[in-house]
Amino acid sequence: MEGCCGAEDLHDMDKYLEPDRVAMQKKLLLGLAAATLLTTMAPAFAASNTLNWGSQLDAAKCHAGSLPIINVVQNVTRNPDSGTGGNWALDNFTRQITVWQTGPGEFCAILAYHGMFGSSAFAGDPSPGGTGTLSGTEQGTLEGGFRATFSGTFTPGAAPTSGFIGSTDCGGTTTGSCTGYVSSWTPMYFNSGAGVDLSSGMNWWGWIYHGGSCGTWVDAVPSAGTGTGDIICP
Questions:
Q1: Which has the closest alpha carbon to 111: 102, 98, 93?
Q2: Exposed/middle/buried for 140, CB within 10 Å: 0-12, 13-18, 19+?
Q3: Residue 192 DSSP one-character state
Q4: CB 228 within 8 A of CB 48
Q5: Smallest Cα–Cα separation from 118: which of 131, 136, 95?
Q6: How far is it, in rounded angstroms, from Cα 142 to Cα 93?
Q7: pLDDT in tens, 138-176
Q8: Per-residue pLDDT tens over the stretch 185-216
């Protein structure tokens, strides 16, 4: 409308706004700023405690359409798990072992782990991420695995190349490690019982531990044992 609301009029209208209306506008602006800051920061925190292990253990990483020569399942119990300050939990898990032959005497293996962990035997010891002390009540789920290439001679004999192949009990030691459990299945299939040392051919490895409200810890390359995050229960 002509004669109404010129620049000076609009400028002066602020003085007539009710005090509570001005306060409300300020609160809305502050709320929007805080929400923007949290949205910007959230991915950084989330990324440090997640692990896309599925993409690394995809069968396509090992083969180009061929069928596996081994596709079996093994249980491992009471396996001591190490963190930044030594052993911190005992694990019980199932692992799917899949192997492809990629060339004469050349193989690629993918081992996918799913299981649970508990820290009751390690109360008072350092947490896996090294930021505190374990209460002994930390427990939860774990998942991940590794991918490895190796050389050898395929000699399965009577060993089943599919289905369940039994369990390995690591004994629940709190100070040592489960010697050879990583490769404990290989003597069944390679080098006439001598097996294969997989440690030198690791192309990728990683595990993520979900401790509920007590936290999440990721141990994966390239962190090489230091990991990200932590799990500590009060």
A1: 98
A2: buried
A3: G
A4: yes
A5: 136
A6: 8
A7: 999 999 999 999 999 999 999 999 999 999 899 898 888
A8: 999 999 999 999 998 899 999 999 999 999 99
